[in-house]
Each structure stands twice: as structure tokens, then as C-alpha cells.
Specification:
3 helices; SH3 type barrels; five-stranded antiparallel sheet; 80 residues; alpha+beta
Length: 80
């Protein structure tokens, strides 16, 4: 599942960052790496941008950036 597919209030964990180039570097430099747990705070009406919270940080991502981040929802993690 992609980060851009999550709804407000959902919690998830990063599985992989598949974004490319400078976007990938920026995302990873901010600490959004594999294993990071976060919560979706807000989603704009058209899905762009998406605001997430993790490690005391609030981050807004464009839809195309969020499409490059693959996640597992916390409900999926607890079911394993």
C-alpha cells in the first residue's frame, strides 16, 4: 500500500521508500525511513498534500512524493 492511499487518523509503518533522486534523499534525510511509524494527520480535499506526524515532526508531502513511499498499516502489523 502507498502512503498516498491512507486516510486521516490511520497509523502505518514505512516498508520502503521507492521515490527517486532528490525527493528520495529529502524524505530519508527527514527520518522517514524503513521501520518508521507515523500517523496521517490531514489530507487535502484532492489528496495533495498529505500531512503526517512521526518522531515529534509534522511533514507535508505532495501526492507524487507520497506515492513513492510504501507502507504497512498498523492493523496489518498487529495481525501478523
Amino acid at each position: 500500500m502507498r502512503l498516498s492511499e491512507l486516510k486521516v487518523g490511520e497509523k502505518a509503518e514505512v516498508e520502503a521508500v521507492k521515490a527517486v533522486g532528490a525527493v528520495r534523499r529529502r524524505i530519508m534525510d527527514m527520518g522517514l525511513i524503513k521501520g518508521t511509524e507515523f500517523q496521517v494527520i490531514r489530507v487535502a480535499p484532492l489528496g495533495d498534500p498529505v500531512e503526517i506526524a512521526f518522531k515529534g515532526l509534522y511533514l507535508a508531502l505532495r501526492k507524487n512524493e507520497a506515492d513513492g513511499i510504501f507502507v504497512t498499516t498498523m492493523s496489518d502489523v498487529t495481525a501478523k
